[in-house]
Design a protein that fits this description.
By secondary structure, this protein is an all-alpha fold. The chain has 2 helices and no strands. The longest helix has 22 residues.
């Protein structure tokens, strides 16, 4: 089990969700569309980051 792969995906999801929510909250309210966008951003970032393997260490 590679813990670094899990944390890489969690960090990417958190960053995407934070960016989407901060953009949606610029006017002080969060609409349904903005919430759906934030959820999709988190899921997309998690999925894409999970699919890309880590680079192997040199000499391995």
């Amino acid at each position: 089990m590679k813990i670094s792969r899990y944390w890489k995906a969690v960090a990417a999801g958190a960053a995407a969700g934070t960016a989407a929510l901060s953009t949606g909250l610029q006017d002080g309210t969060l609409t349904t569309g903005e919430t759906i966008t934030a959820v999709l951003a988190v899921l997309g970032a998690l999925g894409l980051t999970w699919a890309v393997p880590n680079q192997p260490k040199p000499g391995a």
